[in-house]
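Class, carefully examine what follows:
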Amino acid sequence: MTQFINKFKIPTLLGLGIIFLGLASGLYLVLREQTFLSQAAPNFTPRNITIANIAEDSVVISWQTSSAASSFVTFGQSNPGEQTALDDRDTNVPKSRLTHYVTLKNLLPKTNYQFKIISGKFTSDIAKFETATPLTNQTGLTPIIGSVLDGDSPLRDGIVYLSIPEAAAQSALVKEGGNFLIPLSRIRKADLSDTYQLTEGEVVKLTINSDKGNASMLFTLKASSLPLPPIKLGQNVDLTTTEETLITTNDLDKYDLNSDGKTNAADNVIILQNLGKNPKNTRADINEDAVVDQKDLDLMSQKLKELGSQ
């Protein structure tokens, strides 16, 4: 009788074991697939949200996303759904990108607004800002002009932020040619109460964010509007500790033969390496007379003396 019972018991236990292993394997595969999908899912969550360029009638909201997202901002006084604003680079339809830059226009002075960021399938919580009162005077300083390089090529897209202690944040888009311009004439105090009185020689910081990388530059303000030296992604430049001279864009193009943002002895070497007709580096022909000779060396020597770089 016992043998008869065991005859059926052993296969039953074996069957239960097989069923248990099957369930465990299935559960493992499901969990692994869920983990994979979770890791592969795009992340549209806005980060580094910045409110800048606050004026009496406009404000700029910018942010980044880890995955390319089609984004826009909804805003209003009573609720954040009254109006919609697209990225400054979009026309009728939002385009997918990693850096986002939206200007809200036609706002009322000294007024509280609410807004939401719609980023792909993600909707942010309600955030708020207040516009400023109209300014009665301006700083009188000219804009900050510069350019950003991605390797040796102009950066095609990005955002530049200007940080000054006790002043409201300023920002600008990097244009397709890699250039940017940040006006200073209407910059305000951090509390927006009045114009921030910039002074020549004040140390300020630029931060560049893009989908290709980031960069930063510390420098002192100048009364003139000479462009800053080009900054490359990946660099953190401190011009306050060097004696680099800011020169015009034309001079950079003409005398900065190796495109490193400086004119120095290294550029003079390039001329020496290309003496004669049909130079390998045509930029060495500074006076553009179809031959690299002593005339080009003299021009470079004169420029180096002006800059104190010899």
The radius of gyration is 30 Å. The longest strand covers residues 59-76.
